[in-house]
Specification:
47% helix, globular, mainly alpha, 4 helices
Length: 70
C-alpha cells in the first residue's frame, strides 16, 4: 500500500487503485483506469502520459502533479 505524508510523494507507478483514488482525490473507477493502463502499457513516464488516459478528472490530478513520482 502506498503511503503519503504531507510534503511526501505519490508513487503513481507503484500505488494501487484504492490508494491512487484517495491520494489524487479521484473516483475509484478513474484510479482503476490508471492502473489498467499502467499494467497494459507500462509505467507512466510523465504527466503527459497520465493526461493521455481517457476519462480522468485531469484538473484534480494536475493539482497534485508536483507530488507525483514517476
Amino acid at each position: 500500500s502506498a503511503t503519503f505524508k504531507p510534503g511526501g510523494r505519490i508513487y503513481i507507478n507503484l500505488a494501487n487503485a484504492k490508494d491512487l483514488a484517495k491520494l489524487l482525490d479521484i473516483p475509484l473507477a478513474e484510479a482503476e483506469r490508471l492502473v489498467a493502463v499502467r499494467t497494459d502499457k507500462g509505467p507512466f513516464a510523465d504527466m503527459d502520459a497520465v493526461r493521455s488516459v481517457g476519462g480522468l478528472t485531469v484538473a484534480k490530478i494536475d493539482a497534485r502533479a508536483s507530488e507525483l513520482e514517476f
